[in-house]
């Protein structure tokens, strides 16, 4: 998304996270599913005026940028073992066991998962699991054939950021369109055999690639 009014758009994005939090719960056809299922998110906003890239995320969907021949992660996964997250989780009355909240969820921020947002004495931002994003900014001056990658954990469980960017660069050199590159990345990540639960290559996969056709000044 290109915009001139970054501050206003960032407020809108944060507000949309809050709205999504409620909509998911209301639209669940099964009360049980609403309590135990969830989703992550990552959003990137590019400012026309100064070229800044603003990124927000919850969970383990990531944004990675490739510029000046280097890979730059823009997000950090929200994991229960991170000290900031762990403190909030324990204050909310939950425990982290083997990297998972109450031996279940291995994320500390997500949409849904309302069973871990049910402490009636605490606000939405104080629950064991929250749906509020972290925001990061990059001043990278993108040049032709630089790119941005937005993808969920189904991709990152099968390849790291550098591997993904290296693969994308190879496809760009072959003049492949971003949509086709996404298909090839997913094909490479999918396990060739039916994976055992928790094994890499068997999770849902979503990928978006934004490639710059010219230098941004």
Describe this structure in words.
InterPro entries: PP2C, PPM-type-like_dom_sf, PPM-type_phosphatase-like_dom. There is one protein chain. This protein is α+β, with helices and mostly antiparallel strands and 217 residues long. It has 2 domains: 1-140, 4-Layer Sandwich (Phosphatase 2c, domain 1), CATH 3.60.40.10; 147-217, no CATH class. The chain has 6 helices and 12 strands. It has helices at 6-27, 31-36, 83-91, 153-156, 161-173, 178-189, and strands at 2-3, 38-39, 41-47, 53-58, 62-67, 70-73, 96-97, 100-101, 111-112, 134-138, 147-151, 207-211. Strands 1-3-4-10 form a 4-stranded mixed β-sheet, with helices on one face. A 4-stranded antiparallel β-sheet has the order 6-5-11-12. A hairpin with a 2-residue loop joins strand 7 (96-97) and strand 8 (100-101). The longest helix has 22 residues, at 6-27. The mean pLDDT is 87.
Q: In terms of topology, how is this protein built?
A:
Layout: E1 2-3, H1 6-27, H2 31-36, E2 38-39, E3 41-47, E4 53-58, E5 62-67, E6 70-73, H3 83-91, E7 96-97, E8 100-101, E9 111-112, E10 134-138, E11 147-151, H4 153-156, H5 161-173, H6 178-189, E12 207-211
Parallel strand pairs: 1-3
Antiparallel strand pairs: 2-9, 3-4, 4-10, 5-6, 5-11, 7-8, 11-12
Compact overview of the structure:
The protein has 217 residues and is α+β, with helices and mostly antiparallel strands.
């Amino acid at each position: 998304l290109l915009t001139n009014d970054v501050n206003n758009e960032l407020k809108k994005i944060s507000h949309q996270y809050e709205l999504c939090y409620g909509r998911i719960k209301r639209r669940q056809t099964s009360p049980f599913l609403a309590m135990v299922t969830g989703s992550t998110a990552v959003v990137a906003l590019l400012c026309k005026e100064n070229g800044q890239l603003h990124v927000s995320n919850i969970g383990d969907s990531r944004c990675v940028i490739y510029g000046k021949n280097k890979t730059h992660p823009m997000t950090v996964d929200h994991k229960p073992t991170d000290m900031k997250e762990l403190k909030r989780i324990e204050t909310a009355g939950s425990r982290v066991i083997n990297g998972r909240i109450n031996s279940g969820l291995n994320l500390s921020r997500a949409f849904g998962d309302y069973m871990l947002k049910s402490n009636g004495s605490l606000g939405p931002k104080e629950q064991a699991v929250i749906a509020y994003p972290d925001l990061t900014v990059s001043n990278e001056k993108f040049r032709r054939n630089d790119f941005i990658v937005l993808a969920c954990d189904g991709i990152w469980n099968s390849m790291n950021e550098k591997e993904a960017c290296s693969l994308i660069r190879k496809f760009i050199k072959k003049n492949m369109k971003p949509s086709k590159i996404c298909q090839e990345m997913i094909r490479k990540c999918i396990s060739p055999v039916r994976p055992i639960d928790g094994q890499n290559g068997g999770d849902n996969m979503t990928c978006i690639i934004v490639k710059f056709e010219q230098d941004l000044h």
